[in-house]
């Protein structure tokens, strides 16, 4: 069975109430409360987005995220009461796509999840169907396959990284503000700068010859980013 959203949280009442709220708005949602139940869930089911708590009764959400990333490439949003920068960076470094702090407002969380589902409900958006590929020197993107190659070798990209790279390339030559990237890539206006900065760094590490002195993905201080050929 395919669900729109899976909540992984050992706070049973919170997980249950969030799932019930999402279901009221036709976002088919269920929840599990521990590591093993989450692994078991994906043997017979799927989900378009995962809301994952860090503190689980039987394990760490960080460990669960790394395990899921071995086989699953859907967006993972960490939801936690922990607010330290270290926790946020760890979450993004190991495969999380965003970080939401508790307590959260159900309506805001629902809006974020709906926006993400809209963008990931299909593997290709209309622009990707219209174009076959992009090539610039050693970098090639096959939009129909959703794959990135460097010097002919496939480079693995998480879903959010891929969306961000494609958006920068399709808008190459112009400065793109952070607000536009939050809105068009993440689907909301409340994604933090830290999330974007980490994803930009990942892109540079994967496609730039010298990530510390990028020749393609450049920062325009005070304005945003630009992709230059």
TrEMBL record:
* Native species: Anaerosporobacter mobilis DSM 15930
Q: Which PROSITE patterns match?
A: OMPR_PHOB (PS51755), RESPONSE_REGULATORY (PS50110)
Q: Which GO terms describe its biological process?
A: regulation of DNA-templated transcription
What's this chain's function?
A: May play the central regulatory role in sporulation. It may be an element of the effector pathway responsible for the activation of sporulation genes in response to nutritional stress. Spo0A may act in concert with spo0H (a sigma factor) to control the expression of some genes that are critical to the sporulation process.
User: Which residue numbers delimit the Response regulatory domain?
Assistant: 4-117
Q: Where is the OmpR/PhoB-type domain?
A: 131-229
Give the UniProt entry's GO cellular component terms. Answer: cytosol; protein-DNA complex
For the modification 4-aspartylphosphate, which residues carry it? 53
What are the DNA-binding region positions? 131-229
GO MF term set:
phosphorelay response regulator activity; transcription cis-regulatory region binding
User: Which Pfam family is one of those matched by this entry?
Assistant: Trans_reg_C
Can you name this protein? Stage 0 sporulation protein A homolog
Keywords tagged on the record: DNA-binding, Phosphoprotein, Transcription, Transcription regulation
